[in-house]
Each structure stands twice: as C-alpha cells, then as structure tokens.
Amino acid sequence: MEKRIWKFLLVFFLLSFVLSGCYYFAAKKEINSAEKLLSDLKGEGGPSLVPYEYCSAEKFLEISKMEFNENDFKAAKGFAGRSKSAAEVGLSEVKKKK
C-alpha cells in the first residue's frame, strides 16, 4: 500500500512540473509575438493614429512581462494575448486610415 502512495505522488509531481513548463514556453512565445506586433504598430505611426489601441497593447504587454517575472505564466500568456489583440486591431485601423 505504501509503495502505491509513493508512486502516485511521484507521478503527480512529475506531471505538475511538465505542465508548468508548458505554460512557460507558451507564455514566452506569446510575449515575443506581442512585442513584434507592438513594434509593427509603433512603426506604422500607432501612437498618434490609434492612441487607445497602442496604449492598451503597450500596457497589457507590460503587465504580461511583470506576471512572467513573478512566475505566473498562465496570467502572462493571457495578458500577452490581450496585447496582441489590441495591436492587431490598431494595425487594422491604421491601414484603414492610410
């Protein structure tokens, strides 16, 4: 009986470490993608043409990086996704105005 408990605990801990590692890489990828979109938006004149979308994307990315540094990878991925969405909307609005 005791061996079964130890095996269960070992498997549980291994799975928890593997799953937390997945969030790390997913969050890192999402942050990098959001940084690229924000850079593209800035290059297209986003701060002056679509200030709301630009500020939203910038602040969500900032919060995402803070959450990532605090090892809350799930929240970091979520905020980076929101940053990407704001930047994409900003880019589409800039293209409509040009």
What do you see in this structure?
Helices cover 92% and strands 0% of the residues. The model has no long low-confidence stretch (mean pLDDT 90). The chain has helices at residues 2-43, 46-49, 51-69, 73-97. With 98 residues, it is mainly alpha-helical.
**Helicity level, as a percent range?**
over 70%
Q: Any idea what the shape is? A: rod-shaped
Instruction: Name the poorly predicted regions.
Output: none
* Number of discrete helical segments: 4
What's the β-strand tally? 0
Structural class: mainly alpha
Mean pLDDT: 90
Q: What is Rg?
A: 19 Å
The H-and-E topology, N to C, reads as HHHH
For the sheet with most strands, the description reads: none
Strand content: under 5%
Q: Structurally, how many domains make up the residues?
A: 1
Q: Termini separation (Å)?
A: 71 Å
